[in-house]
């Protein structure tokens, strides 16, 4: 169960090798979290992530999970929920893709969309129903500022996050009053292995900063969290910028 | 439709308004309906609930049944000669006072609010300002009827294991349906109160130690925002039920009248952050300075002396949507250093707490999970939104546990489960009894899940 400060005792991470998710898990383990399920494609990286979290004192299990195989989500995630209450589900899987390449290769672009959006729709609904049966819990969805307004440089990724973001907001409204809390997290440019080698955007942040914001959001039962917070204002301005101007902005 | 059991999914929190969860609210109106409610709990079990004054998550059950007992509220037998009452568990102490005071009887133990039910008083084994004389509530309960997980109703007498597991057992042994309670005789419905100020914590502890035995009721309010030499300054109020001859002629005409005052309800929506260090410090300073240095024999109404906050319905709303946590711990005699250290830490950290209460407990009672034990108990309310509060209270827990003390589970909403067995050494007995009495784990609460009550020893 969560405590008075919204801190979970058990955590299910969908996308168990995500840098942001692991930073969040580390932070929550330092507080109250004792049980962690890391769901992801079986790999040495997933196992070593689990091993690292174990050294922090948590009871960590790995769960084979593939975002691109929605048919399996019910079974795989259902098993986790039968083992005990899950206080927080962190939906953190996603791929950035390679915009230039994906524009030329529609099949690759579809994979980005299927992972980030279709996979999340399926896993999000499965998790939401299980949380609703429990009568409590948080679903934290890692969206992105890229979904707030599609940019020329990464609109395939951005559009998938836009879909995910809209889905998560609607899910949050649907679950209002059921005891389940849905929180959409919109980080800006985060320095992780996903963005390694890319030119850094302004207001770049770290996985640790996202983790801090997630903890605060859980405490406040926030519905939307921007990291860093100033992006709320920046993106609001960008969202309303006229198309012609937006196109010419150096972003 | 009045006779029908009502059922609906509702978001439930404790009085501190933190960590809501959704359960199915069932409100039985007969014992038979209560039996049905327990039998039909479903896979996520059920937990009895009274008037929701437990601060944390003791009376909520996410995804399961929350069995609201306030529909069972009959007073069956009052023995006005002998001083005992047999009543349903859903009867509030407020109702008992209304009925019993005109007959010259008072509840044996009352906490800081009248709005707790008899069932809740047993489940939390509540204590009051008279603990040093009268012990906790269960000491005055002669027997009760308990509806257990198998759907049977058992009569439980004082001195049995089931009685001691249920007293303070947070509703996890079953649903108390009725209780027989021994009462306290009173000559009037007024209190004769002595007030004095203590300059600092040591002064306060000396005054409590030297004088408590002369009073039935004793409590101290501490200003935890005072620093330096004034750390722990306090207003000490102690009293007795006023005898008839202490009353002025006008009051003697209706010496047993019970007329609690009532102020306007706190509005439903208040911003968080009304209670800041500055506002609370100002309030505390005013409160301290307006208290008399020393005054004896002041006549106060029962409600003003025991339940000043009950005058403001929904006062818990002033903490805004973040809610608040109440932190109450006890450390034994000889552990005064731990108490001093904690008071120092809270003062240094400038926690905006305007309800900080220190009291000296008397002998403990046999309830396995009962909170009181001989020593010092400090209770404070803190806004839950205060940054870093969780980690800070964890540190205090460590000090309390190291000193052999414990925190009060009926008020808890954030204890680390690892510390529970250190604080409650009879927890394993409790778990063993529950494993036998309720093998399927029908009775369960958010608190029980959070603190791993199910875990076998």
Automatic annotation (TrEMBL), chain A:
<dbReference type="InterPro" id="IPR020904">
    <property type="entry name" value="Sc_DH/Rdtase_CS"/>
</dbReference>
<dbReference type="InterPro" id="IPR036291">
    <property type="entry name" value="NAD(P)-bd_dom_sf"/>
</dbReference>
<dbReference type="InterPro" id="IPR002347">
    <property type="entry name" value="SDR_fam"/>
</dbReference>
<keyword id="KW-0560">Oxidoreductase</keyword>
<comment type="similarity">
    <text>Belongs to the short-chain dehydrogenases/reductases (SDR) family.</text>
</comment>
<protein>
    <submittedName>
        <fullName>Decaprenylphospho-beta-D-erythro-pentofuranosid-2-ulose 2-reductase</fullName>
        <ecNumber>1.1.1.333</ecNumber>
    </submittedName>
</protein>
<dbReference type="GO" id="GO:0016491">
    <property type="term" value="F:oxidoreductase activity"/>
</dbReference>
<dbReference type="Pfam" id="PF00106">
    <property type="entry name" value="adh_short"/>
</dbReference>
UniProtKB/TrEMBL annotation, chain B:
<dbReference type="InterPro" id="IPR016166">
    <property type="entry name" value="FAD-bd_PCMH"/>
</dbReference>
<dbReference type="InterPro" id="IPR036318">
    <property type="entry name" value="FAD-bd_PCMH-like_sf"/>
</dbReference>
<dbReference type="InterPro" id="IPR006094">
    <property type="entry name" value="Oxid_FAD_bind_N"/>
</dbReference>
<feature type="domain" description="FAD-binding PCMH-type">
    <location>
        <begin position="18"/>
        <end position="186"/>
    </location>
</feature>
<dbReference type="GO" id="GO:0003885">
    <property type="term" value="F:D-arabinono-1,4-lactone oxidase activity"/>
</dbReference>
<dbReference type="InterPro" id="IPR016171">
    <property type="entry name" value="Vanillyl_alc_oxidase_C-sub2"/>
</dbReference>
<dbReference type="InterPro" id="IPR010031">
    <property type="entry name" value="FAD_lactone_oxidase-like"/>
</dbReference>
<dbReference type="Pfam" id="PF01565">
    <property type="entry name" value="FAD_binding_4"/>
</dbReference>
<dbReference type="GO" id="GO:0071949">
    <property type="term" value="F:FAD binding"/>
</dbReference>
<dbReference type="InterPro" id="IPR016169">
    <property type="entry name" value="FAD-bd_PCMH_sub2"/>
</dbReference>
<keyword id="KW-0560">Oxidoreductase</keyword>
<protein>
    <submittedName>
        <fullName>FAD-binding oxidoreductase</fullName>
    </submittedName>
</protein>
<dbReference type="InterPro" id="IPR007173">
    <property type="entry name" value="ALO_C"/>
</dbReference>
<dbReference type="GO" id="GO:0016020">
    <property type="term" value="C:membrane"/>
</dbReference>
<dbReference type="Pfam" id="PF04030">
    <property type="entry name" value="ALO"/>
</dbReference>
């Amino acid at each position: 169960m969560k405590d008075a400060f919204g801190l979970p005792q058990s955590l299910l991470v969908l996308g168990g090798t995500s840098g942001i998710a692991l930073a969040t898990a580390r932070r929550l383990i330092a507080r109250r979290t004792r049980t962690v399920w890391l769901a992801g494609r079986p790999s040495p990286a997933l196992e070593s992530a689990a091993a690292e979290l174990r050294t922090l004192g948590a009871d960590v299990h790995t769960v084979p999970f593939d975002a691109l195989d929605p048919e399996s989500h019910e079974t795989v995630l259902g098993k986790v929920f039968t083992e005990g209450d899950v206080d927080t589900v962190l939906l953190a899987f996603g791929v950035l893709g390679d915009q230039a390449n994906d524009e030329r290769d529609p099949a690759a672009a579809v994979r980005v969309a299927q992972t980030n959006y279709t996979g999340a729709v399926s896993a999000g609904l499965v998790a939401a129903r299980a949380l609703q049966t429990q009568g409590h819990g948080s679903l934290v969805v890692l969206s992105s500022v890229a979904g707030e307004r599609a940019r020329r440089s990464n609109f395939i990724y951005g559009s998938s996050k836009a879909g995910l973001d809209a889905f998560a907001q609607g899910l949050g409204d649907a679950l209002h009053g059921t005891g389940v809390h849905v929180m959409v997290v919109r980080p800006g440019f985060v320095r992780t292995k996903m963005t390694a080698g890319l030119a850094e955007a302004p207001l770049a942040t770290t996985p640790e900063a996202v983790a801090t914001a997630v903890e605060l959001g859980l405490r406040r039962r926030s519905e939307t969290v921007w990291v860093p917070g100033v992006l709320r204002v920046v993106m609001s301005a960008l969202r309303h910028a006229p198309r012609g101007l937006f196109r010419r902005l150096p972003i | 439709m009045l006779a029908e059991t009502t059922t609906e999914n509702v978001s439930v929190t404790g009085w501190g308004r933190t960590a809501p969860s959704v359960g199915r609210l069932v409100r039985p109106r007969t014992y038979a309906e209560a039996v049905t409610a327990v039998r039909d709990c479903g896979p996520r079990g059920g937990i009895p609930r009274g008037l929701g004054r437990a601060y944390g998550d003791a009376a909520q059950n996410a995804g399961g049944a929350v069995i609201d007992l306030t529909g069972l509220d009959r007073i069956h037998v009052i023995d006005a000669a002998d001083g005992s009452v047999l009543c349903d568990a859903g009867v509030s102490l407020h109702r008992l006072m209304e009925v019993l005071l005109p007959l010259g009887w008072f509840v044996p133990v009352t906490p800081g609010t009248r709005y707790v039910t008899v069932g809740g008083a047993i489940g939390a084994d509540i204590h009051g300002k008279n603990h040093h004389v009268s012990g906790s509530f269960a000491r005055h309960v002669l027997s009760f009827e308990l509806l257990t997980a198998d759907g049977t109703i058992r009569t439980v007498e004082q001195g049995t294991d089931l009685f001691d597991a249920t007293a303070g057992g947070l509703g996890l042994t079953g649903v108390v349906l009725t209780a027989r309670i021994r009462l306290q005789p009173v000559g009037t419905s007024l209190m004769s109160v002595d007030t004095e100020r203590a300059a600092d914590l040591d002064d306060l502890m000396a005054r409590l130690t030297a004088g408590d035995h002369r009073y039935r009721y004793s409590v101290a309010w501490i200003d935890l925002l005072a620093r330096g030499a004034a750390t722990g300054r306090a207003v000490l109020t102690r009293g007795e039920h006023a005898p008839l001859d202490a009353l002025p002629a006008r009051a003697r005409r209706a010496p047993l009248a019970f007329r609690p005052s009532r102020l306007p309800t706190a509005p439903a929506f208040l911003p968080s952050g009304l209670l800041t260090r500055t506002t609370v410090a100002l309030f505390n300073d005013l409160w301290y300075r307006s208290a008399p240095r020393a005054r004896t024999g002041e006549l106060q109404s029962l409600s003003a002396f025991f339940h000043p906050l009950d005058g403001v319905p929904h006062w818990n709303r002033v903490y805004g949507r973040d809610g608040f946590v109440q932190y109450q711990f006890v450390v034994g005699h000889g552990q005064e250093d731990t108490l001093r250290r904690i008071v120092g830490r809270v003062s240094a950290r400038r926690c905006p707490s305007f309800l900080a209460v220190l009291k000296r407990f008397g002998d403990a009672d046999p309830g396995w999970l009962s909170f009181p034990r001989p020593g010092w108990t400090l209770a404070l309310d803190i806004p839950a939104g205060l940054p870093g509060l969780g980690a800070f209270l964890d540190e205090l827990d460590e000090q309390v546990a190291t000193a052999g003390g414990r925190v009060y589970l009926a008020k808890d909403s954030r204890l680390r489960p690892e510390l529970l067995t250190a604080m409650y050494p009879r927890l394993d007995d409790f778990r063993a009894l529950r494993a036998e009495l309720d093998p399927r784990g029908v009775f369960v609460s958010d608190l029980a899940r959070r603190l791993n009550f199910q875990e076998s020893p």
